[in-house]
Amino acid sequence: MTERAEDEAVLARLRTVTMWLSRQMREPSAAATPITPSRHSTLWSVDKFGPLRMTDLARLEKISKSSVTRIVGNLAADGLVEVTPDANDGRSTLVGMTPEGTRILAATSERTDAFFLSRLADFSEAEKVMLEAAVMLLERLASPGEDGSAQA
């Protein structure tokens, strides 16, 4: 097998496992929190990087401005984010977290963490070290390239 074929095989496995992990991370919270994956991702970005302008949030989420406007509108209606005028630019607004949004995000993270901690209980110490190394590599893989094509 050529190096390119080996890389493609690894990437196919990575694509599959990240999809499975994503679904498993949503499962523990799906019944308890009526937040769609796109709303959850947007809420997470606002929490981590906010307050943000809508255009910056759309860029981070890799979605159109109209999509982010709709998602933010729904999150604001649910009391999870607040939209306020940008003091530095009267034409722009900023999206920030509300205490309820912070609470919902923390509760979702706690349920997901509990799920994965129960799975990690079966890992040896050596496997946990390998997992930490794998996470570092995934963070590097997901970080923005010189062309800005990916976001962490």
Account of the protein in words:
There is one protein chain. The chain has 152 residues and is mainly alpha-helical. Helices cover 67% and strands 11% of the residues. It has six helices and three strands, in the order H-H-E-H-H-E-E-H-H. The chain has a three-stranded antiparallel β-sheet. Helix 1 packs across helix 5 (99-120). The chain starts with a helix and ends in a 10-residue tail after the last helix.
Question: How do the helices and strands line up, and which of them pair or pack?
Answer:
Blueprint: H1 3-30, H2 37-49, E1 52-53, H3 54-61, H4 65-77, E2 81-86, E3 89-97, H5 99-120, H6 125-142
Helix pairs in contact: 1-5, 2-4, 3-4
Secondary-structure-based class equals: mainly alpha
How much strand content do the residues show? 5-15%
Order of helices and strands: HHEHHEEHH
Average pLDDT works out at: 87
Low-confidence stretches: none
Counted by DSSP, the helix tally is 6
> N- to C-terminal separation?
32 Å
Principal-axis shape equals globular
Task: Work out the number of β strands.
Answer: 3
Please describe the structure with a list of short key phrases separated by commas or semicolons.
152 residues; mainly alpha; 3 strands; 67% helix; globular
